[in-house]
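We examine the record.

___
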Amino acid sequence: MEEDPHASIDGLRKIIIFLESKQGSDGYYVVNAQLNEVSRAISKLEAANVPVPESLRKLKLDLVAEVSAKADIQEALGMLSSCLDAWLRVVGQEPEKRHKKPRRIRRRGTTVGEGDA
């Protein structure tokens, strides 16, 4: 029994919307730039022998987690995009081309197929 392609497409749309909603409004590069600046500020404070506020250290940890989550979401969206491209290539083919067996070639009384040389 074949699955309804419209249901599959709707399901994929929901997954994409969910992943995009988890990214938040700030993109990966913005959050990464914030992380770099917070790290630089912490390094400057440490170099000047000034105590680093715990809130600044916590902010750095939060940004590290956010950058990691955004990278994971980008990777998931990339894999989803690749899968969709492959799926569309298969769906876009005519049914007889999709399920055709490899063609066997006859040469001088012998049959050469896939794996034979």
Observations:
- Strands lie at 105-107, 110-112.
